[in-house]
Amino acid sequence: MENRRSFIKKSMLVGAGVALSTGCDKNSKPPSKSVNINRNKKVRIKLATSWPSNFPIMGEGVERFAERVNTISGGSIKIKVHAKNVLVPAFGVFDAASVGAIDAYHSASYYYKGKNEAFNMFTGFPFGMTASEMNAWLDFGGGMELWRELYDKHNLIPFKGGNTNIQMGGWFKKEINTVEDLQGLKMRIPGLGGEVFAKLGVKPIQLPAGEIFISLERNMLDATEWLGPSLDIKMGFAKAAKNYYTGWHEPGSMLSLVFNKKKFNKLSDEQKMMIEMASQEMNAYMSSQFQYENAKALTKIKESDVTIRSFPKPIMEAAKTAMLEVAHEKSSKSPDFKKVWEHAQAFLKENSAWSDIGINAYLNVR
Ligand code: CA
To answer: How far is the CA of 48 from the centre of ligand 1 (A)?
Structure first.
């Protein structure tokens, strides 16, 4: 009798536990009515980044995010940010968060294309979305649902983590006038941009940040891309290459703030919402900072002996064709890539029509 009573008691506890956790899962999105507020629940979050310590804009942005969450949560959340190599190597953050060795990270999705080619698209792609189009795709167009669906298989929940805005096409030692000028050109250009340029004859080379300038200076590289005026100027590229080309390959690269799923789902609804809101704020802040710092750095670059150029139209047309070939090849190998690519293309078709009539028409008359 005693045993039976304790069995019933235990069963009820287990039952209650199941009901509670089901309730939590249902509320993993910001709830509309009942909010599970628990101000006493204290949580510590170990967040690692792919950036060196004190890295301008991106590193600063995630530090600001952590400070603000720690403050608005009244101490219920304590996020500690660790630069690359402190807890894990720069590109080890995905696996570390996936297995729960760290709780969260700040990085970019395309670094993990080795896991899934579709991950490229959550950062962006050549001739793809601008920062505002990317925000619209993720917030309203169904892009975030796709991102979460694919990261869920790795026990991860992604959020927007800031946008670099339009990136420059890179620094070239020689002027590029025709596709022939690209033949055999050794260029540091990662990701889909590198794969597209490879189809046009470029030899893409992957180099860590610390080796790019010296390779360019010693003619081991003919060209390099990095980001935009704000961060490029700090790398000293203007001393080694005098032709600075406008962008095409990273039109609005989205950074990512990613949580271990189990850790995130343990948070109260209030804590989840604070993180979601602070991620939106980080995203907006970083975009504004890139706009501000790029403009300031461009003024300095224009005062130097660097010439700013755009690739001639036939080169860009050839690159667009090459991008479609790259997408076709990847789609035939990866159903996930195909699904996300087609989704993003359909979104972009409608949105670029509006961007052309809206912002583009305006910029042409300003
Ligand atoms: Ca870049």
So the answer is: 21
pLDDT > 70? residue 23: no
Residues 6+ apart with CB under 8 A from 330: 117, 337, 338, 341
Three-state DSSP class for residue 199 = helix
The DSSP letter of residue 31 is: P
Q: Give the pLDDT confidence of 190-240 residue by residue, as tens digits.
A: 899 999 999 999 999 988 788 999 999 999 999 999 999 999 999 999 999
Ligand 1 centroid vs 207 CA: distance in angstroms?
Answer: 12
The phi-psi region of residue 240 (left if phi > 0; otherwise alpha if psi is between -120 and 50; otherwise beta) is alpha
69-122 pLDDT, tens per residue?
999 999 999 999 999 999 999 999 999 999 999 999 999 999 999 999 999 999
Please tell me the distance between residue 225's alpha carbon and the centre of ligand 1 in angstroms. 6
What are the two backbone dihedrals, phi and then psi, of residue 347, each rounded to the nearest 5 degrees? -65, -45
CA 224 / ligand 1 centre spacing (Å): 9
Q: 55 CA distance to ligand 1 centroid (A)?
A: 15
Q: Each residue of 262-288: b (16+ CB within 10 Å) or e?
A: ebbeebbbbbbbbbeebbeebbebbbe
Token digits for 35? 């909010």
pLDDT value of residue 33: 55
Asked whether the beta carbons of 327 and 127 are under 8 A apart, the reply is: no
Q: Ligand 1 center to residue 14 CA distance, Å?
A: 51
Task: Say how far apart CA 259 and CA 263 lie, in whole Å.
Answer: 7
Query: How many angstroms does the Cα of residue 18 sit away from the middle of ligand 1?
Result: 46
Domains located in the chain, CATH noted: 38-164+252-302+336-366 (3.40.190.170), 170-249+305-333 (3.40.190.10)
- Tokens representing 104? 């969260």
How far is ligand 1, taken at its centre, from the CA of residue 339, in Å? 25
Do residues 347 and 137 make contact, with C-beta atoms less than 8 angstroms apart? yes
